[in-house]
Every structure is written in structure tokens, then in C-alpha cells.
Design brief:
alpha+beta; NADH Oxidase; four-stranded antiparallel beta sheet; about 200 residues; 6 helices; about 40% helix
Length: about 200
């Protein structure tokens, strides 16, 4: 039943915000998220705050066979980057497997305002807020999500895989899937330690 008072709506939003957690791909089930629901989450992202209405967020939705291709690409990029001494076969396999464990992976991208009418950090912040809208919405639907930003996203082969346009860059991947993880307690120090009233 939908909340119909301001108090009930506030309590529901507080619950969703405080219960959101990073849920990792190894915890995902095989159930697929309907594409229509992904589209709804992306529409929620589109309502994030944006200075001067630059709307810098761009998303690339990866699903189906492309998940395996993404896993192979990220694993190969990891292997290229590591020295023979530092290379871990376990991490290589884990990197290749991670996207395959997901229903969808959303590449989080930002397109810089061509006029540079706002500072770049504001564009990054707006994109992050759009992702938070997705994440909170996903949590409300029982969908797990995890934002990962491997250094290899800057590689030319990763940019080519994502078909990034000029002025766009990838800020990471949002791995997504249904899960059956129990609710986890928050790990936060008290807000009073981070607040000063003037």
C-alpha cells in the first residue's frame, strides 16, 4: 500500500536511503531484471539535480551476451596492466566472471558540457547523483547494485567497447542483479562528528 501522508512518505524514503548497500555480483540470483524496470530506473536518474540543466549523465546498458564480452575485456585489460609478478590468476578469473553474474551492467558515463558553463566537478557530481537515484530505486525493488571504477576504464579499447563519443568519459560500472541478501547494518560514524552548526 502506498504511503498517503507526508510523514509516511518521509519514513519510507528514510528507510530506503538508510538500508541501501553495495550488493556484489557473487550474491546475485539468476533472475533477470525486466528491461522495462531498467528503463524506469534510468528515468529516475534523469531527474537528478543539474546545474544550468547540462544533464551530463550518459548511460550504456549492457546485458545478454555483451556481459561476457565485457568480462573478457576487463579481464584482458587487467592482465595487460599487471606485471608478471603482480598478476593474479584468481583476480583475472573473478574479473571475467563478475559481469556474467549480473542481470545488467550500466556503464556510468559523463558528457562534458561543450560550453563548459559549469565546473567539471559539478558535472561529475550531477552524474553521481543520477546514479544515486538509480541505486535507491533499485534498492526499493530488491535489486542489488555495486559501483566499480577500475582504472582500465580509461583504456582506448574500453572506450571503443562503450562507443563513447567525443567529450564523454566512463566513470565506472554499476553491476546489478536480484539478490536474497539479508538486511545489513549500516557502518557509519555518527553524523554529529561530521557536522558543525554555525
Amino acid at each position: 500500500m502506498l504511503p498517503n501522508t507526508s510523514l509516511e512518505k518521509g519514513q519510507l524514503s528514510t528507510q530506503i536511503i538508510r538500508s541501501r548497500r553495495s550488493i556484489f555480483p557473487h550474491s546475485y540470483t539468476n533472475e533477470k531484471i525486466p528491461n522495462s524496470l531498467i528503463e524506469e530506473l534510468l528515468e529516475n536518474a534523469n531527474h537528478a539535480p543539474t546545474h544550468r540543466f547540462t544533464e551530463p549523465w550518459r548511460f550504456k546498458v549492457i546485458t545478454g551476451e555483451k556481459l561476457g564480452a565485457l568480462g573478457d575485456l576487463l579481464a584482458d585489460l587487467y592482465k595487460e596492466k599487471m606485471s608478471e609478478e603482480s598478476f593474479s590468476e584468481m583476480k583475472y578469473k573473478k574479473t571475467a566472471q563478475k559481469p556474467r553474474q549480473c542481470s545488467h551492467v550500466i556503464a556510468i558515463c559523463m558528457e562534458r558540457d561543450a560550453k563548459e558553463s559549469v565546473p567539471e566537478w559539478e558535472e561529475v557530481a550531477a552524474t553521481a547523483m543520477a546514479v544515486q537515484n538509480i541505486w535507491l530505486s533499485a534498492s526499493a525493488y530488491g535489486i542489488g547494485a555495486y559501483w566499480s571504477s577500475p582504472s582500465t576504464i580509461k583504456s582506448s579499447s574500453c572506450q571503443a567497447f562503450l562507443n563513447l563519443s567525443e567529450g564523454q568519459r566512463c566513470l565506472g560500472f554499476l553491476f546489478m542483479g536480484y539478490h536474497q541478501m539479508p538486511e545489513q547494518a549500516a557502518k557509519r560514524s555518527p553524523i554529529q562528528e561530521k557536522t558543525e552548526w554555525l
